[in-house]
Amino acid sequence: MDAKAAIERLQIGQKPEWPSNSESFDFAQSLDNSDHILKTFRSDFIVPTKAQLKRKTINDDAETSKAASGPEDESIYFCGNSLGLQPHAIQEYLSAYLKTWGSIAVGGHFTQISDSPLTAYQDMAGDCAMKMAPIVGASASEVVAMNTLTINLHLMMAAFYKPTPKKHKIMCEWRPFPSDYYAIESQIEWHGLDPSKSMLLVEPDDGYLITTSKILNLIEQEAESLALILLPGIQYYSGQLLDIPTITAHAHKHNITIGWDLAHAAGNVELKLHDWDVDFACWCTYKYMNAGAGAIAGTFVHSKHGNNEHYTGLKGWYGHDKSSRFLMDNKFVPTPGAQGFQCSNPSIVDLTCLSGALSVFEKTSMAELRRKSLLLTAYAEHLLTSIAARNIRDGKFPFEIITPADPTQRGTQLSVLLQEELMEDVSKALEGNGVICDKRKPGIIRVAPVPLYNTFGDVWRFMKIFENAIKSQMVEVTGNVEAQAML
Ligand SMILES: Cc1ncc(COP(=O)(O)O)c(C=O)c1O
Fold this sequence. Notes:
The chain is an alpha/beta fold. It contains 16 helices and 15 strands. The chain has helices at about 5-10, 25-30, 60-65, 90-105, 120-135, 150-160, 180-190, 195-200, 210-220, 245-255, 310, 350-360, 365-390, 425-430, 455-480, 480-485, and strands spanning about 45, 75, 85, 145, 170-175, 200, 225-230, 255-260, 280-285, 295-300, 400, 415-420, 435, 440, 445. It has a seven-stranded mixed sheet, sandwiched between helices. The chain is globular, with a radius of gyration of 24 Å. The model is unreliable at about 480-485 (pLDDT under 50). It binds pyridoxal-5'-phosphate (PLP). Pyridoxal-5'-phosphate binds near residues 232 and 261. Homodimer.
């Protein structure tokens, strides 16, 4: 297969032509070895072994200390949409931090140790902003590493949501992640308004997906009443990637401020937040940026909003300009740009983890990662489609993929909606075979092959386990002898 041509087709929303041997392991391996596809950074990550997934004590025993002798001993980790794998760099960066704290103590705030991967603590948030900026298509002064995602959504709404009696609505999607829903609802309440009147949900056209035209029409209809639009770059449940530049431009045409929750988009798809003229955006760093559970989050504020003082009204000493922060004269001089939104001094443990995780991204680019991701996800989709066609039961497919079929409208994630009665047994079979992916009741399995550390071989192995799980469930439910024979 011509991998380069296949990727080019995917980039313009077309499907590749898969060769007749595409369902063989040799074919998956040939893609992993192709010169036209970004080589894996798997060795930069800790991929748990199947034995390690069963760990019960923090001390290693014979099983947990054993290194994988080959990919068959490793787990198949398709859960980077929830928590990215641990980069090896994190241990190195954390040891450097502990050594710095344990030797020069408070001196770490202003002193850079010459051979340390860390900057002085005072510069670490700026350093992380510099490393995150190319990932989201921004300049470093438009990005800040601070707090966590929901808190940052609150801060941005405190800054940008200024309702008036006429213009008071916040537009969001029909099924926001609960934390986004609560944040929007409570911001409305904070202004003494009624969420049932001021929250405008965009419903899907049918099923799970929302067309761009639906969003644009609603903006048009509600332009007089909309104070703010807050949408997800990628919808967490369906995996749909919204058309951020088109929707942003349309909001601005109607003089409406627009922000994006990029929890599932940052580090996953290419973003050009500055060029797209996005007002603000927030993301977490524990999913595709691999900085660890609950890690410090990222926020973008467009440079056109410049000096933030009049936007937040919520000041803290770390929002004060760095050059005079320690004069302690209580005359607030905001740091221009996104970093002026900081309040407290940030956790250096958090910034250390983020800095270590971002060091892996410095070895490549989002453009390269996206190229590989398009093909990895298309390969997963191709194998899933064949499995569905081979396992029709009572005239029905055992599952459907609810993520858009158009590769330009999705990231790595495919959301697979199983027939409800299959969910429990398929989940058990996946777990029993060392597969980690995210399950949401009643029947959604989210499968996210991440280009930094997942391989085409992982996709192939996953599909074997998944198909066997479906077939064995069919045997159980129907006593289907034909299915039994295929196991
Ligand atoms: C879309 C979305 N919004 C908000 C959150 C909540 O993030 P946090 O707990 O870091 O505030 C998540 C967490 O996964 C998410 O996926």
